Amino acid sequence: MRLPGRYDGVARPIVTYGSNPVLHRPCAPVTEFGRDLRRLVLDMFASMEAADGVGLAANQIGVDARIFVIDCPDAAGEDVVGYVVNPVLTVLDPVDDEPAEEVTEEGCLSVPGPYAELPRAFRARVDGVDTNGDPVSIEATGMAARCLQHEVDHLDGTVYVDRLPEELRERLLAESRQGAQ
Fold first, then answer.
1. CA 16/CA 14 separation, integer angstroms
2. 175 catalytic per annotation
3. What is the greatest pairwise CA distance in the chain?
4. Residue-wise over 2-39: b if at least 16 C-beta within 10 A, else e?
5. What angle do CA 105, 108, 113 make, to 5 degrees?
6. Backbone phi and psi for residue 79, each to the nearest 5 degrees, phi listed first
7. What is the pLDDT of residue 8?
8. Strand ranges (DSSP E) for 76-159?
9. What secondary structure letter does DSSP report for 144?
10. What's the confidence (pLDDT) of residue 7?
11. Above 80 in pLDDT, residue 181?
12. I need a labelling partner for 178 at 20 to 30 A (CA). Which of 56, 89, 113, 161 fits?
């Protein structure tokens, strides 16, 4: 799951909300594995780092493919770093005294600037494959679980602001556009 030299890729521009249809439709499953896929994952890590993000889906750099990368702390403050090709999300039941969900601020590299409170499951897991097609899983809590859910949403064509009431969504998109000028 960890990729040696993961920040050795080339940073690509981030697609912003409304600027490219790939951000607003479900991404295509990956069917070809190998060097080109590995290069894409490296570029995704580099793009995420250059944009100061904690997660990035392939469609956020204009690529129609079900892949995301993550470098985000979990509820215990431990970094969750990895990537998943063709991820399937499972929201997990809380363990012990964990909450089922958590409402915290969420933002997005594709909607630069504003944040909004959004409920997400506190614990989640994604299952998929790596760049060789071998099975991988990431299970996380807290912010990292939020990130898993956020990135799979992207791959399904949903940006976090799409989950907000229309009035709030429109205000945040206007703030984002205004900040980009």
1. 6
2. no
3. 47
4. ebeebeebebbebbbbeeeebbeeebeebeeeeeebee
5. 80
6. -70, 130
7. 78
8. 79-91, 101-108, 111-121, 123-129, 135-141
9. H
10. 61
11. no
12. 56
- Residues 49 and 86: their CA atoms lie apart, in Å, by 22
pLDDT in tens, 94-103: 999 999 999 9
- The residue-averaged pLDDT of 90-94 equals 96
Whether residue 41 contacts residue 131, with contact meaning beta carbons closer than 8 Å, is answered with: yes
Record the tokens describing residue 67, joined without a space: 């892949």
Which of 151, 166, 167, 175 is an active site residue?
151
Q: What confidence tens digit (pLDDT) does each residue in 103-153 have?
A: 999 999 999 999 999 999 999 999 999 999 999 999 999 999 999 999 999
Tokens of 158: 């949903």
Two tokens, residue 88:
């399937």
Please state, in angstroms and rounded to a whole number, the distance separating the CA atoms of residues 38 and 85: 11
